[in-house]
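Write out the 3D structure for:
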Amino acid sequence: MRGVDAEFLCKTALFQGVTPQEVTEMLGCLAARPKTYEKGELVWVEGGPVTSVGVVLEGAVRVEGADVWGNASVMGSFSAGELFGEAFAALPEEPLLTNVVAAKSPTRVLFIDVTHVMHSCPRACACHARVAENLLTSVARKNVRLTRRIRDAAPKSIRGKLLAYLSTQSKLAGSNEFDIPFTRQQLADYLGVDRCALCSAIGRLEREGKLAANRHHFSLPEVATGR
């Protein structure tokens, strides 16, 4: 397909385990279509149906939510190589709850009709089944991350949310020392709290000896003695 790099797609989660030649052959079967957007242009509009999954080829997209009073917030973002829209594409009767906006110029997205992924082509090739498995795996991984986020954000206090998140990261790392993938602002957004209040909570916990923090690196001294 013109303008679509098969080598690049092989490195994405959706086409993992598929060769460049197989990708090239499959794009037609999957009704794939690339589209280019300028920064700020709407990729998908809240309330509309979604029938395709999107793979970011270049640039980035941002997921934005807004309440009935017009207050907007960024719900997430996807950069080159990442997949978005899987859950809504699998349930086209469910209206989209957010806007998806191009975050850079240019932003190029490859749209793939989910029905062509879930229903194999007449050749029933093994690579088609692999892409369907990859799609299911992507949905499952995002569901697990969402479950973790709900659990981390469940406590009412900022201190409780922070400790719940750090507990999860410690368990995932299998150690009382670990790195987190967020800046302080990103962590505040993830937990749904004010950045300054979060930094104050981290400072208090450090003074109490419950944690040590250096940018992305955290350690939980009390956990080490308890194991």
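The first helix runs from residue 6 to 10.
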